[in-house]
Amino acid sequence: MRRATMLPAAALALLATACAPSRTEAQGLAQRVRAAGGEMVALHYASRPGVCGNGTRGFSMGRHMYFGEWSADRDLRSRCVYGPVRVRARVERGTITDVSVMVGPDVPHDERATDLGEVGGAEAARFFLALADTSTTHAARGAIVAAVLADSASVWQGLLAIAADSSRASRSTRHDALFWAGRFAAAKVAGHGEDIAAMEDDDRDDRDDARDAAVFALSQLRGKQGVEPLIEVARSHKDPQLRQKAIFWLGESNDPRALALFREILGGAGGAGA
Fold it and tell me: Is this model's pTM higher than 0.85 or not?
C-alpha cells in the first residue's frame, strides 16, 4: 500500500521559506486542487524555453534529450509543440495520489477532469516542489518534473533540499531530484545559467567520443569507485562539455558527494537561486 500525504500541513511546510505573496499563491493553488474532491484535476502553465511535446507523456528538451513515453503513431520528434505544461493530478479525499505531466497540445483523455485553467509558472513550481517534498513516491516523481518544466521559476534549491532529505523522501524521489539538480549544474558549467534546454543544444565533436566513453566507464565502476574521478572531471576539466557529461553521470549516482558538488556549483558566484 502506498503512503498517502495530506496537502494542507506537510506539503505546504516547504513554502515557509518563500516570501509571503509567493506562499499565499501556492497555498491558494493547493486549496483549489484539494477542493476538487475525489476527481482528476487538470491545470496548465507556461513551459521553460526549449521544452516541447505532443500532448502525451513524452517531452523533448533541446535537440538531444527525450523523456517519458511516446509511440510510433504519435512520434514526439516530428510533432513537438513548445508548451504549455499540462498536469493532471488525481485527488482522493484531499490527497494527491498521482501526477501526470504532458507538454504541448491538449489531447483528449478517457477520464474527465476538473480544469483549473492556467496558473503562473512560478506558482506551479512552488506548489509541485512542496508536493514532491512530502508526497507518495509516484506522485512525488511526477511533481518534480512538473516543477522543473515551469517557466520563470528557479527550482534548483528545492531540488537539492529534496535530494538531501533521507528522512522523508524515498530513494527514487531523491534520485530524480539529484538528476535534475545535475541538469542545472551542467547548464551553469556550460555558461547557460538555468537554461537547461539550451545546454542540450550544444554541438558535440565526434572526436570526443573516446573521452565520453572514458567518462562513462568511470560511472560504471563497482562500489562507486568512479565518483571521485568524475567529480574531478566535473570540477576542473578544461572541456565544458566533458564536465557536463561527468555531471550527468554523477546525477545518476545517488551519492552524497555528487549532491555536495552540485550545491558547490550552483551556489557559487552567479549561481544563487531566487
Answer: no
Give the distance, in angstroms, between the CA of residue 132 and the centroid of all CA atoms in the same chain. Answer: 10
d(CA 178, CA 236): 20
Exposure on the CB side of residue 251, measured as CA atoms within 13 A: 22
Residue 265, sorted as left (phi over 0), alpha (psi -120 to 50) or beta, turns out to be: alpha
Q: Are 197 and 50 in contact (CB under 8 A)?
A: yes
Q: Phi and psi (nearest 5°) for 125?
A: -60, -45
Q: Give residue-wise pLDDT tens across range 12-57.
A: 344 434 333 455 555 688 888 888 766 899 999 999 999 999 998 8
Q: How many CB atoms lie within 10 A of CB 89?
A: 26
The cell for 13 is 511546510
Cis preceding linkage at 108, omega within 30: no
